[in-house]
Amino acid sequence: MKPQTIGRALGIGLRVGGRIVGQRIAGTAQVPSPAQTAAGSGRDRRNAGRAAGNVSGGLVRGVGGFLRPFRRVGGILWLEVMGVFFLLPVVVFAPILWRTRASYLYGPDHSTFLLTAVVMLVFLYLSVSSFWRARKR
């Protein structure tokens, strides 16, 4: 199907759908006169509420169906962006770990080395797992 015909079909479908939704909303949103409200107001209100619920439910399903492909792509993109952000502390703490490597077991910077190593391992795990989950989707 050519792009011109796809756009035309989508445009026509959107206009027709919008017109139908507008007519249904306008049909259920009519304000009753005082004589009508005194006659059968409970049943009329329930029917109007059900009709409005059906219209809004259909609208939600339609929008949800339209956004479903974007939700998948957006989720993958979110995981990849978070993977990059989790990788940044690893890059920032790498020089500190390199500088304190000489006193990894017993030395003046022993606690700094261990703390830096733990922080780097945690953020490296978070980054790799985020990219892994994005790849699995």
Description of the structure:
The chain has 137 residues and is mainly α. The protein has one domain (31-136). It contains 3 helices and no strands.
Give short descriptive properties of this protein:
137 residues; mainly alpha; 3 helices
| Number of discrete domains | 1
Low-confidence stretches: none
Mean pLDDT: 81
Question: Strand pairing plus helix content: what structural class?
Answer: mainly alpha
Classify the oligomer.
single chain
> How big a fraction of the residues is strand?
under 5%
The major sheet is characterized as:
none
- The overall strand count is 0
N/C terminus separation: 28 Å
Taking all Cα atoms into account, the compactness measure Rg is 30 Å
Q: Helical stretch count?
A: 3
The coarse overall form would be: elongated
Order of helices and strands: HHH
